[in-house]
Amino acid sequence: AELREARIEKTKTVCTYCGVGCSFDIWTKERKILKVEPNMEAPANQISTCVKGKFGWDFVNSNERIVEPLIRRGDAFYPATWDEALDHIANNLLRIREEDGPDAIAYISSSKTTNEENYLMQKLARSVMFTNNIDNCSRYCQAPATEALRRTMGLGGDTGSISDLAISDLVIIVGANPAEAHPVLSTRLRRAQKKHGQKLIVADLRRNIMASRADLFLRPRQGTDLVWLTGVTKYIIDQGRHDAEFIEQRVTGFEDYVRAIEKYTLEYTAQVTGLSKDQLIQTADMITSANSVAICWAMGVTQHLGGSDTSTAICNLLIATGNAGRPGTGAYPLRGHNNVQGAGDFGCAPAFYPGYQPAADEDVRAKYERVWGTRLPSNPGLNNHQMVDAIHDGKLKAMYLVGEDMAVVDSNANYVQRAFEKLDFFVVQDMFLSKTASFADVILPASPSLEKDGTFTNTERRIQRLYQALPPLGQSKPDWQIIQLVANRLGANWNYSSPKEIFEEACATTELFAGATYARLEGYKSLQWPVLPDGTDTPHLYLDEFALEGGKARLYPVDWTQPLILPEEYDLELNNGRLLEHFHEGNMTARVPGIDKKIPSSFVEVSPELARDRGIVDGTLVRIASPYGRVKLRAVVTDRVKGNQIYIPQLSAKDDETVNMLTSSHHDTVTFTPAYKEMRVKMEVLEFT
Ligand code: SF4
C-alpha cells in the first residue's frame, strides 16, 4: 500500500485552455490522471474550474499523440530518429537561407507554449536565422485590443485584475461570451451580481448565456459596435456627464476628440446600429450612475475590418467617463489562449523584442546584439497574415511552425492550405497530426503542458509557474528543448538546462519583467507585470499615471469602417466563436473521450424565423457557401441567433465543417487581424429530416 501511495503525485499546474489562467493541483499515478484539485491559493480562480480544466486532460494519453519525429517521403510520413530529423531540417533551412536569404523563412510560435519557449522561438528567428519574420496567433484575436490600449493608455495588457472585475459596479461585455470562452471569469461575475448587485450590460449579435443574465442586452447590427460606443460617449459628453475633472488632470486630446465625433448623434447612431434611442440613453444612464465601470471585450469586437478602432472606441468611452486608472474600472480584452499574452510579451511579434521593445529601435537591437553576442536583422519582419501572402507570391519558401493549426484556425482556410502546399520546406512541431501538420515535411513531437516546466501569463498580465506532472510520452520533448536542438543544429551554441535559465535571461533584458524570478513565482505565487526590480508587481495599471507622454491617457478619435460588401446572393450574416466544452478547433479536446462524445462535430445555429422560412428543423443537413469556400453542417434551431444571422462554432474536426473555409482574408487595417466576424453566406438545404 505504501508503494502504491508513493507513486501518486500531486503537481501544481496552470490550465492550458483559456486566458483566465486557472491554476490547480493535478493528481497523477504514473501516466494516469486521477483528479484535478483546485486550491484556495490560486490567484485567478481559487476553488473554481470549468469543464475543460476539470475533465479536459485525457488527450495527453491519446494514442494519436505523435511520439517520434516524422519525415515526409512522397505522400506519407515515416518515423525518423531525432538526429535524422534535425539534420533534414538544418540542411533544408540553411540551403534556403543561402539561396533566398534569411527573410525567405518564417517562424510561427504558439500561444499555448510557455513564455520561455516563446522567448527561445523569437531568439532563434532573430539571432540564429537573422530575420524578424516571427509571429504568433495573437494576430488572429487580440492584436487590435493591444493596439487600442497602446494608443489610449500606453501598455498592451488588461488594465486591472480579474478581482477588479468582481468589484466593479457595472461590467459591460462587448462581443465576448465568457460563459463559454472564459467560464471561471463568468462565474466570478455571476457571484458579483448576486453578492453586491453588480450590473451587467451585454452587447452581442447572439443572445449568449451572458446576455441572458444581463440587465441590458444590446443587439446592434453586425459590425456597428464602434458607432454605438461612440454615440453613447458623445451623448454623455453632450449631457455634461463626462468626468471633466479626470479629463482635465489625466487626459489629453479632449477637444479634438469632441470635434471628431460630432456626427455620432443619437439619431445617426440609432439609424446605423438598429438600436433604439431609449437603449442608447439607458446605456449612458447606467454608465454615468455607476461609480466604477469595466469593459470586457473579445473577438466579436476585434475580428472586424475596424477591430482596432472599435477597441479604441471602448477605451475612449472609459477615459471620457473617468473609468480608468482606479480599482474596479478599466479595459479588459479577454485573451483567448492560455498564453496569448505571454507569446507577445516575450517577443514573438515581427515588430517587437520581448517586453514590447521596438525591433526598429537601433538601441534595442544593439542591446540584444550585446546580450546574444551576434548581429541581428534590421529588416522589418512579416506578420502571419503577410507570411501567407508571401508564400503565394513566391517570396517565402520555408516555415517553422510550433503548436498552431493555421490551416484551420486562420481565416480563409482554403487560401492558407494552398499556401502550405507551395512551401519548399515546412517544419511543424505539434502533439498531433493536425491539418497543418499534414502539409509538413518534418513533424517534431512536442509535449503538452503537463509534461513540462515553465510559466504562462494570463489575461490579467499574471505570470504563473507550471510544473512537470508527467514524463514526456515516447520521444516527444518539451518545446524549449526541441527549439534548442533545432537552433544548435542551425549553428547556435545554446546550453539552457532548464526553463529557469531561459526565464532569467529574458527578464534580465526586459524592464517589464525586471524583478520576475522563479523564486518569486514558486508554487501558487504569481506576479503581474510590470514587475519592478525589487519584485513589486502591478495588479492595476495607471493608478498614478498612464504610460503615454506626460503620464496622461489620450482620447483617440476613430471613425466607423463600413462592413464588407458582398453580392446580394450572400443573404445571411455569418458569426462564429467558441464552445464551452471544446477548446477552439478541438485538436486537444476532441481527443478527450468524454468531451468528444458530448459534442462530436460542429453545427450551425439557425434562428426560428429563418428555419421556418427554409423548412429547417434540428438536424437538417445544410450546405453553407461564401465566395471563399463551403461547408456542410447539421442545423440547430435556436433563438440565440436572430433573423438572417447564423452561427458556427470554431470546432473543426473535418474540412467540410471548418467555419474558416467560409471566412475571408480581409482584415483589420491596422493590425492585420482577420475579419472573421464579417462575412455573408448563402445556405441551401441538402437533406430534410
Ligand atoms: Fe481552464 Fe479557462 Fe476553464 Fe479556467 S476558465 S479551467 S483557465 S478553460
UniProtKB/TrEMBL annotation:
Keywords: 2Fe-2S, 4Fe-4S, Iron, Iron-sulfur, Metal-binding, Molybdenum, Oxidoreductase, Repeat
Enzyme class: oxidoreductase
EC number: 1.17.1.9
Residues in 4Fe-4S Mo/W bis-MGD-type domain copies: 8-64
An MF annotation (GO) of this entry: formate dehydrogenase (NAD+) activity
Cofactor(s) in the UniProt record: Mo-bis(molybdopterin guanine dinucleotide); [2Fe-2S] cluster; [4Fe-4S] cluster
Domain of life per record: Bacteria
Family: In the C-terminal section; belongs to the prokaryotic molybdopterin-containing oxidoreductase family.
Record protein name field: Formate dehydrogenase subunit alpha
Protein encoded by which gene: fdhF
First-to-last residue of the parent protein present: 251 to 939 of 979
